[in-house]
C-alpha cells in the first residue's frame, strides 16, 4: 500500500478528526458518515470556516463540531490590543471586505496556542460523540 493510500485508510477507519482551519481539513472527505469532525476556528475565520468545511461536513453526514478560539489563544493578541476591533470583533472590523490584507492577517499571520484547560473540557464532549459512533459501529 502506498503512503497516501495508507493515510486515507487510516482516516477512513477513524471515529474522529480534529484540525485547525486550513487546507489539510480536506482530508475529512475520507471520514465515514457518523464520524466526529472538529474544526478549530481561529479568530476572524468563522465565516470562511463555515463556507469551507462546516456545510460540506454536515452534507457528508459527519458529526460537525467547532472549537472557536478566544483572543488569548491567538498570536494576534501579541500584535494588537485586546480591545482593538481586529481582536474584539473581527466581523465588524472586516465588514463585507474580505480583502487580501484582511485575509492575510487572519489566515496567514495568525498562529493558535490552545488553552489546554478549556480545550480539555471540549474534548470530553468530542469523546462522548465519538464513543456513541464507536458503540454504534460495534
What features would you describe in this structure?
With 138 residues, this protein is α/β, with parallel strands linked by helices. It has one domain. Helices cover 47% and strands 12% of the residues.
What order do the helices and strands come in, and which of them pair?
Layout lengths: L2 H11 L2 E5 L15 E6 L4 H14 L3 E6 L16 H4 L1 H5 L5 H9 L7 H22 L1
Parallel strand pairs: 1-2, 2-3
Helix content: 40-55%
Give the termini separation.
26 Å
Helix-strand topology string: HEEHEHHHH
Major beta sheet, specifics?
Answer: 3 strands, parallel
State the secondary-structure class: alpha/beta
Helix count equals: 6
Count of separate structural domains: 1
Q: Order of strands across the biggest sheet?
A: 1-2-3
Which ranges are low-confidence, i.e. pLDDT below 50, for 5 or more consecutive residues?
A: none
Global mean pLDDT:
93
Question: What is the number of beta strands?
Answer: 3
Computed CA radius of gyration, to the nearest angstrom: 17 Å
Strand content: 5-15%
The outline comes out as globular
Protein name: Glycosyltransferase AER61
Organism: Fagus sylvatica (Beechnut)
GO molecular function, one term: glycosyltransferase activity
InterPro entries: Glycosyltransferase_61
Amino acid at each position: 500500500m502506498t503512503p497516501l493510500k495508507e493515510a486515507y485508510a487510516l482516516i477512513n477507519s477513524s471515529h474522529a478528526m480534529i484540525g485547525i482551519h486550513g487546507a489539510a481539513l480536506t482530508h475529512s472527505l475520507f471520514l465515514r458518515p457518523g464520524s466526529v469532525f472538529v474544526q478549530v476556528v481561529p479568530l476572524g475565520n468563522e465565516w470562511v470556516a463555515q463556507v469551507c468545511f462546516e456545510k460540506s461536513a454536515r452534507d457528508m453526514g459527519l458529526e460537525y463540531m467547532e472549537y472557536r478560539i478566544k483572543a488569548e489563544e491567538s498570536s494576534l493578541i501579541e500584535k494588537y490590543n485586546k480591545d482593538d476591533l481586529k481582536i474584539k470583533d473581527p466581523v465588524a472590523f472586516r465588514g463585507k471586505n474580505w480583502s487580501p490584507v484582511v485575509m492575510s492577517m487572519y489566515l496567514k499571520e495568525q498562529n493558535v496556542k490552545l488553552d489546554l484547560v478549556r480545550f480539555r473540557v471540549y474534548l470530553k464532549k468530542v469523546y462522548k460523540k465519538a464513543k456513541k459512533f464507536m458503540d454504534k459501529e460495534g
